[in-house]
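Thread: "does anyone have the structure for this chain?"

Original post by V.I.:
We have the sequence but no experimental structure in hand. Need at least a predicted one for the grant figures.
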Amino acid sequence: MFADFRKLEDGLSLKADVCVIGAGAAGITIATTLAKTPLAVCLLESGGLEYEPATQDLYGGQTRGRPWYDADTRESGGEQIIPELVFSRVRFFGGSTNHWGHGCVPLDDTDFAVRSWVPFSGWPIRQADLEPYYARAVALCQAPAADFGRRQPPDPLAVDPTKLRYHTGALSPINFGTAYRAALQQADNVKILLHANLLELHANRDASAVEKATFGTLEGKRGTVYARSFVLCCGGIENARLLLLSNSVVKQGLGNTRDLVGRFFMDHPRGACGRIYGGDPKHLMPQALYFAPQIERREKTLQALARFVDREAGPIPDGIVAVRQLEAAFAARTIPPNFAELIERIVLDADDVIRGIYRREMDGDAVPNNYIEFEGQFEQAPNPDSRITLGDEVDRLGQRRTMLDWRLTDLDHHTYRRFALTVAAEIARLGLGRLKLPPWLEPDSTEPAELGGCSHHMGTTRMADDPSRGVVDRNCRVHGIANLYIGGSSCFSTGGCGFPTFTIVVLALRLARYLQQDLARSG
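Reply from O.Q.:
Generated one for you, tokens below.
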């Protein structure tokens, strides 16, 4: 059943077997799975059933160091746009599945393995540990099961398989918040509390277990949930922030005795890696090419994905049109009747004419024609200096806002350049056009990568068997805290280069089963 905390009494106190915080893909998956069990479940959601600006503003924060922005916010040919962190997530029932790319891509077994050239790589689990949950995850995502695994587009490129490969998933048509609302409404053992913002997870005296969670509305009401187990499912940024804010007993925040909460923030860097001139859009656009594992090992790179997008060039400047008319007349050994007018147009548009002449001398095109953009999307190397901390500003609830410091490494930059050069060589070999790389991807360039993110926030409560290398164990339980678990991509040890939602759902299904078994054992 659903209830709006704003309409309930102040000081509300609830009891449950499992308290899930956050109703996105992970939280809804866990609640839906546990709805079929005898366990009493309480699901806290910060927002309501629709978008509300005041609630969304709670996601606000600041960035420092390397600018972070969602690559989708950059207009082709326009200036870089760096939105506030508030725009990269969605804070109402359904979470970011209210506005997502719908891609469902399973991780490869190589994603879970230790790679000697990738520091901090390797999960404590393998793909085989997740495969038993794939069929259920596909069903929850309502994705075509036949699309999973390796398949090629209708007209595949004859790429060198030792360099590039095909590997695709499927598209999910659903929004978790609407698809499973009715089922959760009818579940007698699940209570969903809307407009209930987590304020703190309160641990016992030695921080070995969480005793209660306090929550509140923007209007000032406060409530408490007592539960046997607590599961934080608020996303790759907010999970870390909420652990850091839960500092009544442990000053540095729950699960953070080794200063790992918030570290290893990862996204999928993405952006334009070149322009293909003379290519066939209809042939190239359906292609999605990944680095082959052989070249990753040989070149010691991260994973990478290439897509191809048809781009429209802008209008031809008036001065260049006039230059072309004059050149055509001179080639025919005639003087055009509007000679004076053409000269005037060239003079008035001198800047564009000079740039056009320079481009023509350098590249052969006075005005960029329509082109195919080579868009790269990349795995990010795990980096402890890329992190989430708490800023000095506070939100409307009096909670310190997020500070994001996004850091890329030499391995990241090495991957971008090796992948771009590999794709360029294959495009040329196959006669598919001429790929012109941007200056920052030239082998000797020292310019920073012109890439944004995908709003795929990962890694800030990473999974590891060793508490000195991660925040949660292989069962997504926070090290040292008996009944606190994390759901979502913040648990990812590495992120591959594909969409994370499918793996989020798979991990949530696995965690729901573990909770059911663990609570049954403990009575």
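V.I.: this helps a lot. The radius of gyration is 26 Å.
O.Q.: and Residues 242 and 361 are 57 Å apart (CA to CA).
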